Amino acid sequence: MHERTTAANTAILVSLDFGAPDYVESLEELHLLAESAGIQTLALVEGRRQRPDASLFAGSGKVDEIAALVEQHQVPLVVFNHDLSPAQMRNLTAKIKTRVIDRTMLILDIFALRAQSHEGKVQVELAQLKYLSTRLVGMNTDMGQQKYAVGARGPGETQLELDRRKLDKRVQMLQDRLEKLARQREVMRRARNRSDVFSVSIVGYTNAGKSTLFNRLTQSHVYVADQLFATLDTTSRKMFIEGAGQQEGDAAGIGSPSAYSLRVQVVLSDTVGFIRHLPHGLVAAFRSTLEETAQADLLLHVVDANSPERFDQITEVNKVLQEIEAQHIPQILVFNKIDLQGLPAGVQRDEYGRIARIHLSAKTGAGMDELRMALAEMRDARPHAVSRQEWHPLNNELN
Fold first, then answer.
1. Which of 12, 101, 202, 279 is 20 to 30 A removed from 328 (C-alpha atoms)?
2. Regarding beta strands 40-48 and 10-17, do their DSSP bridges make them parallel or antiparallel, or are they unpaired?
3. Which fold, 10-101?
4. Contacts of residue 10, Cβ cutoff 8 Å, sequence gap at least 6
5. Full pLDDT tens readout for the chain, 399 residues
6. 3-state SS of the chain: helix, strand, coil percent to 5?
7. What are the residue ranges of CATH 3.40.50.300 in the chain?
8. Does the domain made of 195-393 have the CATH classification 3.30.70.1350?
9. CATH 3.40.50.11060 in the chain, residue ranges
């Protein structure tokens, strides 16, 4: 008698080591991805190979091992820590006799779970449909049969062709909707540029503490969780930097720093976190949202100072920034979570005296004054900056 698993969200994880140097880190992320998707892991199946099998990705013996576990526990899902071709996914499903998904499908599922805004949902659906378009073959049992339903008949049209037509039409509609939203965002961006608003975008590896830092700076309540991709929708808030541009104000003869406090408006944006092997389709689908990052005046690159892979994670984030053509935007490395290691807060400068790193804790607030100072300094050092600060009297004599 088979042992049955009652939980519908139970899965077997499969990860094969092909000799990649980041295999251990990728495996850890697989567990975190599964947890973020609400998956209860029944077992982890590992193996070593020189290259993927063309038909089954894993070897036949390893697939038989997975199939035995599925049959014994009646597992409804098997998750591969790799990208599978349509043929491999179809062959594995037939062999294992349960649903099989790959790493990209798992990430897409998490994105669908996290999307809250209309634009975020549109972007996720677009990425899902583009991914699905290459995997229609064999997904329905009657794919090769004629569809005789009223309103769906056509001259020799198969179910697959109809599915493709519907999918293509939906994809085009979603793309048109995203283009409209992108145009609206461009209008808002131009308005900010005319007002000389300093635009700062928070980027970084997923779960590095970006949203916690965003909330600390803007006094907001963006959702924060110890999960991968806890934040998906880009959120922007206004904040003010105190004391920025005092030299400009003094030179203009507006008043002395002792009498006035200079406040400069900043638009701060919290963005989706990046991850190793982030599917290209996701980056493409979220390009309109990520344009906010590509058009920023400054990037705060948040790094988990407590992570042993922090420097590899910095590299992965910079790869995505290059993909969206944001690699030339000035950035400050913000080493977060120093409270977990008992490190002091502070600022590090490069050989030219420019701010390179800031060590802080967004959770405790240590180092936040140094970060605000850095934002003020970077704003004043911005090329071709136009002086449009708001002066607020400390002695309440002027408005």
1. 279
2. parallel
3. Rossmann fold (3.40.50)
4. 39, 40, 41, 42, 73, 75, 76, 77
5. 444 544 678 999 999 999 988 898 889 889 988 988 889 999 999 999 999 999 999 999 999 999 999 999 999 999 999 999 989 999 999 999 999 999 988 888 888 887 777 877 888 888 888 887 777 654 444 333 334 333 333 444 455 566 777 888 888 888 888 788 778 766 766 665 556 678 899 999 988 998 899 989 988 776 555 555 555 566 788 888 765 444 444 433 334 444 344 567 788 888 777 877 777 666 766 666 676 688 889 999 999 999 988 999 999 899 888 888 888 899 999 999 999 988 899 999 988 888 999 999 999 999 999 999 999 888 887 765 443 333 333 333 333
6. 40, 20, 40
7. 195-393
8. no
9. 10-101
